[in-house]
Amino acid sequence: MIRCLAIDDEFLALEVIENYVGRLPFLVLAGTFTNPLEALPLLADEPVDLLFLDIEMPDIGGLTFLRALKKAPLVIFTTAYSQFAPEGFEVDAVDYLIKPIPFDRFLKGVQKAQQRLQPSATTSQPDHLFIKSDYKTLRVALNEILYIEGMKDYVCIHTTGQSINTLLSITGLLEKLPAATFIRVHRSFVIALDKIDSIERNTILIGETKIPIGDQYRDELMKRVSP
User: Fold this and answer.
1) What are the 4-aspartylphosphate sites (modified residues) in this protein (predicted)?
2) How far is residue 101's CA from residue 95's CA, in Å, rounded to a whole number?
3) Domain residue ranges of the chain, discontinuous segments joined by +
């Protein structure tokens, strides 16, 4: 679990972060604050791994606040102004997110923090799968998977470079994939969230491929992609 804290002088921005954090099972939100100074007691008394921090705030700016901390957690800056990005990375920020923040961009930032906090996670959460196809065992990089299609007697994994057929069931394959980045959207389809180009009514577009959205999967999908 990653304990995180959000500081932003805008209530709406805090609501967005709280919503996004709630969708990711490996994040726990320790608190939200509109004034950075009010967060000091919590930062001093409780372990916080990750800080979502606005830069432009009336009483004290995010950069000034961060530099004043004796022991700062990892930080992801959230701001409406791109001109502060160089300063943000000077203080070794994990990421720099420009408002309004889409969920997929938020997810990428959190995954960067996860890698820093859990450097050994690659053993338990590899970035690839080994898939048996015909008489071969193929190494498939997770970040190359576009979507997975369940056929009658087999499953087809569509990647950026090839399509791979395997006798695994779609349910069995889904269990091997990280829940933060893959979601089932139809009885016969699993997609990579960060590969979605657009959603139009009951159809997801990944490149030129149209993928149907099943009624029972629609609500969860819209929660995961809504800003």
Assistant:
1) 54
2) 12
3) 2-121, 126-222
Considering only the top CATH level, what class is 2-121? alpha beta
Q: CA-to-CA distance for 72 and 77, rounded, in angstroms?
A: 13
Does residue 136 surpass a pLDDT of 50?
A: yes
CB atoms within 10 A of CB 164: 20
Greater confidence, 120 or 176? 176
The separation between the first and the last C-alpha atoms of the chain, rounded to the nearest angstrom, is: 23
CATH code of the region 126-222: 2.40.50.1020
The DSSP line for 16-73 is: HHHHHHHH-TTEEEEEEESSGGGGHHHHHHS---EEEEES--SSS-HHHHHHH-SS--
Nearest by Cα to 181 from 107, 127, 74, 122 = 107
Q: Would the pLDDT of 38 be above 60?
A: yes
Kindly calculate the radius of gyration of the chain based on its CA atoms and give it in whole angstroms: 20
